Amino acid sequence: MSILLTEEQELIGQSARDFAKENLDPIAQDLDHTGQFPAAMVKQLAAQDFLGLFLPGEYGGAEAGFVSLVEVVENLSRSCAAVASILVNHSLAAYAIQRWGDAAQKQAFLPALAAGGTLGGFAVFEHGPTPGVGPDALIATRHPAGWALKGTKAFVRNAGAADVYVVLACTDPAAGAKSQAAFIVGAKAIGLTVGPLAETMGLKGCPVADLVFDDVVVADSALLAGADGQTLTTETLALASLMEAAQTVGIGQAAVEHAAAYSKTRVQFGRPIASLQAIQTLLAETAADCHLARLGLRCAAKLMDDGQPFMVETAMVKQFLARFGAKMLIDTVQVEGGFGYSEFMPLPRLFRDIAGTTLLDAPADYPEKTIAAALLA
Amino acid sequence: MSILTAEQKQIQADAAAFVAKEVIPFASQYDKTGEFHPYLLDAARESRIFAMAVPKEYGGLGYDALTQAVVLEAWGYGCAGMGTTLAASVLSMDSVLVAGTEAQKKAYFEPMVRGEIGSFGLTEPSAGSDAGNGKSTAVKVGDEYILNGSKCWITNGGYASVYVIYALTDPAAGMKGISAFIVEKGTPGFSIGTVDHKLGIRSSNTVELLFKDVHLPAANLLGKEGEGMKIAMKTLDMARPAIASLSLGLAQRALDECVKHLQQQYPDKAQPGQTLQFKLADMKIEIEAARQLLYHAMNLRDAGLPYSVESAMTKTFSSDVAMKLTTQAVQLMGSYGYTSGISKLMRDAKIMQIYEGTNQIQRLVISRAVLAPARPAVAVQKGGN
Prior knowledge:
The complex is a heterodimer of chains A (377) and B (385).
Chain A: H1 7-23, H2 25-34, H3 39-47, H4 65-77, H5 81-100, H6 103-115, E1 120-123, E2 139-143, E3 146-157, E4 164-170, E5 180-186, E6 192-194, E7 208-218, E8 223-224, H7 229-265, E9 267-268, E10 271-272, H8 277-305, H9 311-340, H10 347-358, H11 366-376
Parallel strand pairs in A: 1-4
Antiparallel strand pairs in A: 2-3, 3-7, 4-5, 5-8, 6-7, 9-10
Helix pairs in contact in A: 1-4, 4-5, 4-7, 4-8, 5-6, 5-7, 7-8, 7-9, 7-10, 8-9, 9-10, 9-11
Chain B: H1 6-33, H2 39-45, H3 65-78, H4 80-99, H5 102-113, E1 118-121, E2 137-141, E3 144-155, E4 162-168, E5 178-184, E6 190-195, E7 206-217, E8 221-222, H6 228-265, H7 274-302, H8 308-338, H9 342-352, H10 359-371
Parallel strand pairs in B: 1-4
Antiparallel strand pairs in B: 2-3, 3-7, 4-5, 5-8, 6-7
Helix pairs in contact in B: 1-3, 3-4, 3-6, 4-6, 6-7, 6-8, 6-9, 7-8, 8-9, 8-10
């Protein structure tokens, strides 16, 4: 048993690694080329209990907690971060329903989310600078049958593939983001359409698109009333940051292992470039950044498991990776030089993927704001 | 801004106008297809920009080094892939400028003036950073050389009409046995191998060149036998700042796109917070520092002074700045950056740290200069200030 992980967590991580080697390594490069949503893979993730990993046992979840979740995300990402993205975004919807849903909502959605019959998505961003203020802002207005939703959510992951979305909408346009509320919306709801797939730099296979709501009517029972929309958004996005950090660490780990192996076989100046200190430094810095990020994110996940506040620690991990995440691939591609820049080699995919796991999903100054606010409180 | 002559400023404005019309609108398209499109040469023919490094006496534009840098910055701003096409063509001409005879210059530059491109072939699978470790050979038979071997990652390889190719005329002599040759497209035995698909600069053409018993007239030898490595090093000294220029263009584009994005995100008088404001300030500082180092290196070259170390420094600094700023741009724009042409800037920037001598090789050159012994002792001044 490792000092950092329980035996159970270690086993779960190892099972994810084994699964990824067997099932993701063979498809990763193809998935990157085609960008086709790997529907069959979702069933396999479910069979491994990954889709309901942290959900309570009474809903069919594995009840294994968030440290296990980030272990799984990292180990999948070492082979294919795009498939991990599908799990990450699914988990956000499951988390929101589990954390803030009432008994009926949990019973209605969680068992299917855990079993893989239902894939989740989380729709929070809009094209305006802050939710609720743009011309396409998603507005929820009262309707005899419950609520009517009109507007557009932007950059929704698992868009088109998910069966159910947790969607943030403003209930009072004058109050903007402060009036946000979360709704559970089925993908087949009348009036809900998926926009064209965005052309992403990486993480191809995890679809990204707008969700367009044209007076989508949902019942009162669709409202997640356990928290106000802002609290729900902030906490769910923190979990997103944590899982994305795990993706980043997985990608970085794969990259540094590949670059190290390459450096031992690449001979220049009559010796393997691995013997050059300049190359060793690039590898060592990457490995160190990867390790420290892993410790930081496990620590935040442990806080979640213990029911402790985890927002600041998560912001610190995000801040660290905002500085050093992309660098892991900038430096490992450098080790592989002209060969490494070729898309016939694996690192370009990892380079494009890591930009998606470190650089997105929050205003660029969000982590600093969160950390400073805690310090100055 | 910097001190450019009125003529240089005009050339800069013309280059920016050309790029706005002929490069930027097509950058995304050719990035997606991953192909070089010869339309670029058609568009550039009238401006004769591909002959900017050709001296006036050969019908070229005869731009000095600083002016070339200014033009390449504009191209890097528009599309570093297409900029690479231009830079690589100039690179091949530099070898002819360094070592060509009158007749060779005339022959080599003539197609450039017509709007065709050249290509420079030094790298081989076994000879990347270790440029002297190539295996291609050129054996003299009568008044011909017979060229055999291959070259890899050769920019413009599939579309050039003339090439400068490095090969061993004396394999036993190692690096001192390398010679440089002019090779024309269509010479029997010369063919194009695999076309590379790259992380970035996808609109530039990168291929393998294959030589099987290619007969070259002895008159195609550049300089003397065994001078190849010397010619290559001088050529790369000249050409490296081109990478600094393209990088500078990328960095400036990254900043401009960030500003444009923030202005859309914060309409009216609203401003981003200081974290972002200062990030923009740092970007601006690094861009200006990179620009001044580049201009300084170019001024040295134009003045006929040594600039080898400055050439290495400007390539390294500019490309590191480009990598950093393009990464920050994707970050600052988040999903907008990730799903748009902004991510292309980041992919393009990565090669700037690798090609024409990795930044590790540049640091080797620079650190050797820093640590060079035998400096004249400097008297230590004592007392009174």
